[in-house]
Amino acid sequence: MADSLERQLKLAGGNNAVLLRRWPGAGDPVLYVHGATFPSALSVGYRLSGRSWADDLNARGFDVWGFDFIGFGGSTRPQQMAAPAAGVAPLGRAAEAAAQIGAVVDHIRRERAGVRPHIVAHSWGTIAAGLFAGNHPGAVGRLVLFGPIVRRLVEGLPAADRIGAWRTVSIADQLTRFVEDVPPSHPPVLIEPDLAEWGPAYLSTDADAFRQTPPAVRIPNGPQADIIAAWSGQLAYDPGRVLAPALIVHGAWDSLCRDDDAAWLTHALGTAEKADVVVPSATHLMHLEHGREGLFAATADWLARSPS
What we know:
By secondary structure, the chain is of the alpha/beta class. The chain has eight helices and ten strands. Helix 2 (about 95-110) crosses helix 3 (about 125-135).
């Protein structure tokens, strides 16, 4: 298994650049879109027992790509993230993120002689990917929406635009979030139950992590604002405009994408070719869990299907 090739992809209209990763393959290109709190190296590119999701897709022949949104991982950090977060609009909302996806898709198509990449997106990343796919139906092959965030009607949430520009997330914060949906009587499902290696690797994505007490990573608050908006009835994209064949895959214990959420999205999607797969004994973070084999298999099977 080869390590990824990395390069900075400069975005138009400024000095920002995203870190782009590629695991080259001869088959269809697949672009992974990460979620709200950690970048591609800690998700699709993170090796557990010597193998990552990118490795799995690559071994099946796919040309695998990933990138970090602005403010995450190896991509440019906005200047506002070095200033106090309060009173500043959340950074990195869905429209901005969708534009970054578009820049990466354009780059992939230039590299691959116009071939449309498939997109695999996780959690909040499904909002940005859905917005891009709905606005550019001819640019996407097939879609996998892993643990998608959908529209809900929840009362008492804060105003999405008033939560500040950015926030910090510690290893303890991540671990609490990663295990909270596992039934108390069930053995751990994380492959690294204490995030012994993942945690330090996460802190290393922010050069200033150890200036925080406890050490923590700064992340843009735009994704959290988009989730608040979605759960206040204002999803940032119209699923009816998504015409690419779309698979929804979620864990049986995923509280962020429950069965009723997946059913709502399945009905709302505009594509005629769609499916919903539930992976047992898995949560919203199943790509870091023992249940990841079910996620890997369902994703690869969907992407390998012939055009309908």
